[in-house]
């Protein structure tokens, strides 16, 4: 790219993934040449991002489609790490990229965050699937139905590439774990913790014992938050330096996977943490009743999601980006006692305030 300044529009900067990725990009050797605009809803966080991190901020949300279109039109790269199921937001972003292409003739770049739930099945903890999908398997990925989680929005991003007005790269994180750290987290701008494991910890603390759906035999791939941020960084850098080696559009699926674990593995680790904290007498998970499932997870869809199989291989990132994750399942399980303790402290604080 020959331009002296690189314009970037960024969504999700205050999120768990988005914060980690943004602060990694801010350490890029060419960061002083980046003009980054972030979409932020919270006024206090917006001011901190401007004053402490030198970013341009547009205050708003994904509901502000006019802002999404305008800022996307003004950016050569859009990095979208916010809600991967927000169809109107994606349409607004693509409208801006198309306007830019029609006006300037260049092909703007979209880096879109989806999720490995696109692979989920109906296991409900009853069995471990032997199906493992590589992100180099174009036929298998092309056969994913539009009804798969997140995939309606994925297909919109791919269509922009197919129509020729943008280059689309789709990133599919698996189960992300670990406590995020760094300046955005120290400042209280971004969220430190993931969703799934704290959610399960909260439910099992209230239950007084860990639980499983089925036998917890289902398997999900996993990845540490730091390895996830590094993956985004390597892809971003490759787009700047050597994009010819990268697949995009229908060949632009990038799974982010380091290892895998069963649903039982996570529940048992939470159970052991409950015992260590004096919140349960037995670490062994017991099967959740249908009533408990709905009470804990809110809907049968989320039950199916959390206890599905989603097995994949990040072959594209390992091959083309030389991505080498540092963490695996042992690190995930080792991180759970801290996550459970954090959730317990929040529960106790809420009880004291009530």
From TrEMBL:
Species the sequence originates in: Lentinus tigrinus ALCF2SS1-6
Lineage top rank: taxon: Eukaryota
Matching SUPFAM superfamilies: NAD(P)-binding Rossmann-fold domains
A Pfam family the protein falls into: NAD_binding_10
InterPro entries the record matches: NAD(P)-bd_dom (IPR016040), NAD(P)-bd_dom_sf (IPR036291), NAD(P)-dependent_oxidoreduct (IPR051783)
Protein name: NAD-P-binding protein
UniProt domain NAD(P)-binding: residue ranges: 12-100
Leader sequence segment: none
Any one Gene Ontology molecular-function term assigned to this protein's record: aldehyde dehydrogenase (NAD+) activity
Gene Ontology CC annotation, any one: cytoplasm
């Amino acid at each position: 790219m020959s331009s002296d300044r690189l314009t970037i529009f960024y969504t999700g900067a205050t999120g768990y993934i988005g914060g980690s990725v943004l602060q990694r990009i801010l350490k890029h050797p060419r960061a002083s040449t980046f003009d980054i605009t972030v979409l932020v809803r919270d006024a206090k966080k917006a001011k901190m991002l401007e004053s402490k991190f030198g970013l341009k901020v547009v205050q708003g949300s994904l509901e502000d489609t006019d802002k999404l279109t305008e800022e996307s039109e003004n950016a050569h790269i859009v990095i979208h790490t916010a809600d991967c199921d927000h169809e109107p937001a994606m349409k607004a972003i693509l409208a801006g990229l198309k306007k830019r292409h029609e006006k300037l003739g260049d092909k703007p770049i979209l880096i879109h965050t989806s999720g490995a739930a696109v692979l989920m099945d109906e296991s409900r903890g009853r069995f471990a699937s032997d199906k493992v999908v590589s992100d180099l398997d174009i036929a298998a990925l092309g056969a994913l139905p539009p009804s798969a989680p997140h995939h309606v929005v994925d297909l919109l991003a791919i269509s922009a590439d197919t129509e020729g007005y943008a280059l689309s790269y789709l990133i599919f994180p698996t189960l992300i774990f670990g406590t995020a750290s760094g300046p955005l987290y120290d400042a209280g701008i971004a969220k430190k913790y993931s969703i799934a494991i704290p959610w399960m910890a909260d439910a099992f603390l209230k239950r007084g014992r860990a639980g499983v759906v089925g036998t917890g035999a289902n398997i999900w791939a996993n990845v540490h938050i730091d390895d996830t941020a590094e993956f985004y960084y390597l892809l971003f850098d490759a787009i700047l330096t050597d994009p010819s080696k990268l697949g995009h559009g229908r060949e632009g699926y990038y799974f982010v996977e380091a290892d895998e674990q069963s649903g039982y593995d996570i529940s048992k680790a939470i159970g052991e943490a409950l015992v260590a904290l004096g919140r349960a007498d037995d670490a062994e998970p017991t099967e959740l009743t249908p009533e408990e499932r709905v009470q804990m997870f809110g809907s049968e869809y989320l039950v199916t999601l959390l206890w599905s199989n989603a097995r994949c291989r990040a072959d594209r990132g390992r091959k083309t980006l030389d991505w080498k994750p540092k963490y695996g399942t042992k690190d995930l399980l080792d991180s759970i006692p801290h996550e459970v303790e954090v959730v317990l402290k929040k529960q106790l604080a809420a009880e004291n305030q009530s």
